[in-house]
Amino acid sequence: MPESLKTLRLPARLSRNLDHNWQQALLKKSAERRVLVNWDIHTSKDALTATITSQEATSEESVSVTVTLNGPFEPANNAEKAQQQLQDTFSKLGNTIYHADNIQIEGDAWFIPGSQLKNLRRDAIDALTAARVAKHPRGSRKAVSEPAPVYPDSQLSFLDNVYNEKARAFYKRFGVELIEPAYEAHQETGDVPVMITKHCLRFSFNLCPKQAKGVTGVFTKVKDMQLINGDEVLTLKFDCKPCEMHIIGKMKNHIFNSPQPGSVESGVGFFDPEKLIAVSKD
């Protein structure tokens, strides 16, 4: 249990992240997160000014932006309908992450085309999003420690899969002295573990020393076994301390003679972040 959880006491509420009903509830529409916003709209003959304020934080940290639609505008024939149009337009925020919580409208009723109101609303939403991103504190990368920490092991085998020079330089920086080439380098020509698995045949055949500990009459001194498939023979070795079975074999000739990954013949390269290029399709 993490140290932080040991201090929890009732009535603290915990949610299991493997709870099926809880996960299904998160998939529903009601589980979507929305940022509440307030609209303050002022109308006059010469301009309509709309201020949108997010309520995601405390009042001291909330973000506000103001956009203006210049007139002049003509008086509305139906004042009630014009006010309702403003109310409906600025309350519909579509597929954005915002939800209009409160809309305050001040001023006389003017005839303003709906297309202009929608463009103004869209500009306000874009400006608010940009302002929130700009105000959000950016994280910084942790400084490289000097001297570098020491890697737990001073020697790496082919099982650690150190293939290219960048990986080799990384481990050398942390104190690794001896690094064997990866299996893909085609330098392991002898018998090596081609698979390490927790599934153990000794256990399946009731030959496990741990399973038969203290039981008389059970033969448990089987050290190695073999898997035979046609002409291919794989040796099974057992490492009982971590409870693992090692499947030992040689690299097949057609794989050993094939081009190595990263070579021109193979056509398969390695990811190098320092050599990224942008490719566009016409």
Description of the molecule:
By secondary structure, the chain is an alpha+beta fold. It has three domains: 32-135, Nucleotidyltransferase, domain 5; 144-189 and 253-271, no CATH class; 190-250, no CATH class. The protein contains six helices and twelve strands. It has helices spanning 20-27, 79-91, 114-135, 165-173, 201-204, 253-256, and strands spanning 35-43, 47-54, 64-70, 74-75, 98-107, 110-111, 155-156, 178-179, 192-197, 224-229, 232-239, 244-249. A four-stranded mixed β-sheet has the order 3-2-1-5, with helices on one face. It has a four-stranded antiparallel β-sheet with strand order 9-12-11-10, with no helix packed on it. A two-stranded antiparallel ribbon has the order 4-6. Strand 7 (155-156), helix 4 (165-173) and strand 8 form a beta-alpha-beta unit. The chain is elongated and about 100 Å long.
Average pLDDT: 81
Number of strands: 12
Oligomer: single chain
- Under the CATH scheme, which class of the largest domain? Alpha Beta
Rough outline? elongated
Q: Proportion of β residues?
A: 15-25%
Q: How do the strands line up in the largest sheet?
A: 3-2-1-5
Count of discrete domains: 3
Number of helices: 6
CATH topology value of the largest domain? Nucleotidyltransferase, domain 5
* Element order: H for helix, E for strand: HEEEEHEEHEHEEHEEEH
Helix fraction bin: 10-25%
What is the end-to-end distance?
54 Å
Derived structural class? alpha+beta
Unreliably modeled segments = 266-282
Radius of gyration (Å)? 34 Å
Main sheet record: 4 strands, mixed
Query: What is the name of the CATH architecture of the largest domain?
Result: 2-Layer Sandwich
